[in-house]
Amino acid sequence: xxxxxLSLTICITVTAALQAQKSLVWPVLTxxxxxxxxxxxxxxxxxxxxxxxxxxxxxxVVSGYLIPVDVEAKRYALSKNPFSSCFFCGNAGPETVxxxxxxxxPGRFATDxxxxxxxxxxxxxxxxxxxxxxxxxxxxx
Length: 141
Fold this sequence. Notes:
single chain; about 140 residues; alpha+beta; five-stranded mixed β-barrel; two-stranded antiparallel sheet; 3 helices; 8 strands; about 35% strand; disordered N terminus
């Protein structure tokens, strides 16, 4: 009986932990469209309803390529594409990159290291930043 209760407790704990983080895939993020504000020239995103209702403010896990933005300041982005094809190089749109704000010092990463990253998804509507941010980011798994 004790083994059964222990197994049940472990299953419930693991299930709760898995449900705490939602897997977010790039096709959902890339449903985001945008227009250029004629007054400011900034790109203003229009997020799909599924992203707003199911993922905004939630703990999510996204896998992608790490792109160093400022290594000294420990600023990184997560990209759908490797660096040679990423938004910063002009071969993709801003809907393919996520700003990472790490909870703790992440150390250094190699460019294009493919990793799952977890954090709270923030949608940036004002056009002054990248469209997406993962707050309190950390390497998942």
